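Researcher: Please predict.
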Amino acid sequence: TLPRCAPTEATAPPIAASTAAPGPGLAPARLAWWRSIRDGAPIADGAGDALVPELEAMLTSTDPEVRDGLAFTVLARWLAADGPLTAAAVTGLRDELTARTAGPPRVGDEVFARSFAALTLSAIAAREVAAPRWTDAELEAQVAAATAYAGREVDLRGYTGATGWAHAAAHTADWMKFLARHPGLRADQAARLLDGGAALVVRPHGARFSHGEDERLAATVRAVVRRGLVDDARLDAWLTAIAAPLARGFPEPFDPTLYAAQRNARDLLVSCFVALSFDPTPGAAAALARLRAAMGG
């Protein structure tokens, strides 16, 4: 449980104007304060909700410490069942970040807002799975948003250098993985989550995944198939879609977009094979058999 006490002016400096917008970082005093919160300093009872809008803004920062090391790290901890956020604050955060993933998909610094919205939504979905409270309509809205984002994002860089991790494909996979674990998930929703993974892998975006995205996507596939909600025919159709770029053979003349899809598809199939091989559930075993057949035995 997060310890709490009343903050003082010294521990809670005023929010700098730059806090509310993407940028290189926070004012020094505010940065130091958030570092103290990340490291376990207490906050006042009821103060968490009021800090959510600032954390939402920090998730868009081009400074990886502000975005990842502070905003996401703090939110992930606060989203635990014993964290300081009320259900209303979590719902508001969910809806704000869901809308953010629907933003125009352009390559550039805007990707951090979308990608880290998806990552935080994965933490919100994990909280929901642990103690379900969403209505059927809320779950459907999350499945629709996650799969739409998977089919729309165009900036699929992994590690970007000075601005840190973008990793939109991996973050979206995490979001879909936890949605796949929701006890209220329907068969059609499970199939659409698989399709979301396929959209990230085989559509002609030209990005070659090389930062572990295949393993995160395989975890999503495993979370879906172990539920037994997807029948053999639907799973076979999905496997055919994943293998479609490979069926076209090596591109001559060389086509980097097709080649990226081929390598991404191969990596996902291999990672799925490994993930399912270590899963003893009947659903995973059945899916592994379909995967073996699709890969030629």
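Model: Residues 86 and 248 are 52 Å apart (CA to CA).
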